[in-house]
Task: structure prediction
Amino acid sequence: MLVPAIAKKAELEQLFAKHIYDEDMFLYNGYPYCNTIPDLTPAEGIYKWAIVEKAVYGDDKVVGYFTYYINNHCESVQNFGLYSFDRGNPVIGIDVYKKMKGLIKKYRRVEWRMIGGNPVEKHYDKLCKHFKGHKVTLCDVVKDNKGMYHNEHIYEIVTR
Result:
């Protein structure tokens, strides 16, 4: 279930703080040594969500973070960010897919980027193919803190 990130701000900040130096933060931010926690404060046109797994007993658990920017002038959605605190948890994929499907239906253009080597690539490829989108690969765009270069993938789905 997606919940506005501001409602889970303290929990999200604690989770991000635990992962601040992980390689996953490099894949999320796209920059080596970018050790900053995302700003969870609401901002115009930017949607920030905590991905929450409903608990049968006890408290709900934050398992991920999802954000994007809506440009109403161009009827487009861009600047997606997705972070999993519980890799392999199907709730993340299900919630993100539902939201993406709704955005693709509502807006003319949906575009996102991803650093090569991200484990979610095969899912993005399937999503893009399902909605008849395009994927472009830029080679050796980003260098990680180990000196290795990574490709950058750009996905776009244009519906009208």
User: Anything to note?
Assistant: The domain at 2-158 is CATH 3.40.630.30 (Aminopeptidase). The longest strand covers residues 61-71. The chain has a mean pLDDT of 92. Helices lie at 9-19, 23-29, 90-106, 121-130.
